[in-house]
Here is the input.
Amino acid sequence: MNALLESKPTTRPDSLAAKSRSRRQYDRVQHQNHQTAQVIESAIMILINCCLLGMTAYTLVHLIPHQISQSAKLREIKIEKEKTAAHVAQLKQEYQRSLQPEEALRIAEEQGHVISNKKQRIFLLSQP
Here is the structure.
């Protein structure tokens, strides 16, 4: 009888060993699957970053000439603005001058509308 009782417990450790072996294999496969997933995720992230880098370089290549032309236009506009500001200042000065009463007569003489009483008039007569 002892022989029968001893044979049963030996089958249990074998099944436990098989279970633990299968559990270790399952864990190993799960670990490999996890590592594979991480490698794939890293590869996808690198690919996306490379695509973003390419799009950024493409955009910069197309934007640099546009920026250069815009800065040239801005320089031209600034120069034109300075010229216009100088012209406006000159016109303001002339306008202020025309509003002064003592200058009004002098301006009229300069433009040829009025002849001052202080100046002598010369009449040229043609000889027959």
Q: What stands out?
A: The chain has one domain: 2-111. The mean pLDDT is 81. Residues 2-99 form the longest helix (98 residues).
